[in-house]
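Moderator note: this is an archived Q&A kept for reference. The question asked for a predicted structure of one protein chain; the sequence and the answer are reproduced below.
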Amino acid sequence: MSTMQSINPATGTTVAEYPTHTPDQATEIINDVNTAWLSWHRTSFDERAKLMRRAADLLDERADELARLMANEMGKPLSQGVGEAKKCANVCRYYADNAATFLADKPLQTDAKKSKVSYQPLGVILTIMPWNFPFWQVFRQIAPSLMAGNTMVLKHASNVPGSALAIESIMQDAGFPVNTFRTLLVPGAETEALITNPHVQAVSLTGSTPAGQQVAATAGSVLKKAVLELGGSDPYLVLDDADIELAAQVSAASRLINTGQSCIAAKRFIVVESVYNKFVEAFTAEMEKYVVGDPFDSGTTVGPMARLDLRDELHEQVKQAVKHGATVLMGCEVPESDGAFYPVSILADVTKDNPVYKEELFGPVAMLIKAQDEADAIEIANDTEFGLGGAIFSQDEARAERIASEEIQSGAVFVNGLVASDPRVPFGGIKQSGYGRELGEHGIHEFVNIKAVQIS
């Protein structure tokens, strides 16, 4: 019998092993989830909301337990894990409160006696999720999809099987009907069969751009809708009138949240030349405040990376960056300690001919890029295949808002604050960062049939 392992990235030790589902078992589960949909989609919004609020309560009650699980499986510091669990509770309550309004029939004015738009669930939704936010990424799909009347199957990352099963337990303990939500423990090689299963109506993926290309191709081959939230190389623009201390503090926090393993973490710090030296000094001082260590230690603010291979890939990118002219301001050396640790690091003097200029650094490494002026900073920010998030620092809010709204090519731009997902705000990217939206009213409309009804 094949298994999936939970390996503690801080120690390299195996925490637990879980038997995987065979292809036949996976097919049977999807069949059961489809059968559950036949009754679930006829339930009322009030009934769905009651169960979703109970799931939120369980997430709050089990926050400490879930944080320990995340720390063991992918190295998230405990305080960040507790925050993630509570954020999941918030998204459950948000859609419990608002789904009925978002999906209410919408009257239209036409030449007919009556015209309207009706929003109806699609059926079984497959969600393919990554390890970096093992609960949040899933619940921001669960809450709108189940409240819309869909049922779901989860194919989670292979290094967080315990988290995947814990999510299934929460939904069952909350009282959702059996098979409304199920977890599939299957290897990545079997994902194509899940997507093409005739009962699966649509698929959502959060992951890398190459993974998104594969999922999009498979879904397209069977004409199924996909929502893809992929990689990012978010630019943080520090303009000549920025509050430098604020910019440095927010930039460091954004770069190092979740040990830098976030698609919407700050990746490229594009600083106007006139304030470059001042920002570098303040930013370095902020980065030095963060403590790398055991995620179970209350003093740790940066845990290990999720896997050794990911740490080694990051270090190879750093070595190539230095080889092509980048300057190391701090860190950038693999520690001799056990585990997948990498130090808080800064690369300066990154230029357009450096390979890292076009890459995503998925870990605690910041790259600094000098811009001549505002126009040059905007051009550098948009000179990327990615388009997920970005931020602008300026004390002239009207100026920053104009740049954010009209100039930066990404799915979200924040002014004087770090980019973060919020249940109330649509989330997603453009270009190689994917398509479709999660969260907010836009997110719940992705996996429903937007049906025109007209009476003559």
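Archived answer notes: The mean pLDDT is 97.
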